[in-house]
Structures are given as structure tokens and as C-alpha cells.
Amino acid sequence: MKTSPFKWTALTLGTVLGVAHIGILGHLIKPQEPRVAQTPTINIPNGPYSSYRIEVGKDGYEIEYRADDPLILESERSLDSDEERRGLFGGGRRQRIEYRRDQYTREGTRNMGGIVNEEGKLTAQEAECLVADAGAASQGAMAGNALATGILVPAVMNIPYIGWLAAGWASLLGQQIGSDVGSQVGSVFNDC
């Protein structure tokens, strides 16, 4: 029994088409892995004071960019010291804790909390008020010290054992109260 070349060609072609059909069906039926959303490539300017945050979701992406971060530079320092007391009333231990928090500008100067305008300088009125306040506080401190020395110090000087110490406290108290009163009076008279 002899087969014709037409039959061999049809059988070969049918086999190739059947295998291809099965392969295509296998490819189409195979479950697809979910696609992961990817962030597009964006060249964000990145410097020493910049920061950015990117969130990617099903609906798209969101970029938050800050060109000057941190806005305020801060420094925190703390000191714990545990020292032994010595001297007249010594004995025991004393624990001292110090804490300091400073804010700095980008240039490295410490922020003193002053009022400045956009250019970083005091206005003429602010400078005048600052000078007037300093002068009034100084004059008030001298007047308070003079009053305390003339009236209060002789009275407390006669206290036994601690009169000399109480006289110093009275003088400092008069100076502090005089400085505060002088500053308040100076701000009223100078419209500050």
C-alpha cells in the first residue's frame, strides 16, 4: 500500500497546525501574573537640604517634594553630672541635669529669637526701641540698687550670722526689680 505525497503533506500540515493550536490555547489559558505598578523615571533635583516622598497606587502616583528641608536646623544637648558636695554644708551627692536646645539658620548662626524683617535686619523703630529698653533697664537697675542699698540693706545687715549674705540678696533683689520697672516705664514713654 502506497501512500500519496498529498496525504503526507496534509498529515504533516495538520500535525503542525494542531500542535500550534494547542500551544496557543495553552498560552491563552495560562493565568497571568498581576502587573506591578512602577514609578516613572523622574529626575527630581536632590540637594543637601531637599527631601521627597513618592507614593504609588492603583490609581496613579503622588510626589511630595520639599526643596528646603529641614526648614529649621536644631541641636539638642544634655548633660548629667553626679558630683559630691564639699565645703561647709557639704555631704551627700548632688545630681545636676542641664538641657539645651538651639535652633540655627542654614549659615550656622544661632537663632536668638529677635524680630527681623525680610532682609534679616531690624527696622529703625525696632532698633530705637531696643536701645531705649536697654537704657531704661540699666537706669532702673541702678535706681533699684541705690534704693535697696539705702533702705533695705541696713535693716537686714543686723541679722546675726547671715546679715552679710542677706544684704547681698537685698541689693540684687532691688537691682532686679528696678531693672524690670525701668524696662516697663521705658517702653511706655518710647511707644514700644
Describe the structure.
By secondary structure, this protein is of the alpha+beta class. The protein has a domain at about 120-190. About 45% of the residues lie in helices and about 20% in strands. It has helices spanning about 5-30, 125-155, 165-190, and strands spanning about 50-55, 60-65, 75-85, 95-105. The chain has a two-stranded antiparallel ribbon with strand order 1-2. A two-stranded antiparallel sheet has the order 3-4. Helix 2 packs antiparallel against helix 3 (about 165-190). The chain is elongated and about 145 Å long. The N and C termini lie far apart (about 125 Å). The mean pLDDT is about 80.
Q: Terminal Cα separation, in Å? A: 124 Å
How many β-strand stretches? 4
Write down the oligomeric state.
single chain
The DSSP helix count reads 3
Poorly predicted regions are: none
**Share of helix, binned:** 40-55%
Q: Percent of residues in beta strands? A: 15-25%
Order of helices and strands: HEEEEHH
How many strands, what sense, and barrel or not for the largest sheet? 2 strands, antiparallel
Shape: elongated
Overall mean pLDDT score? 78
Name the structural class.
alpha+beta
**How are the strands of the biggest sheet laid out side by side?**
1-2
Radius of gyration over all CA atoms, rounded: 42 Å
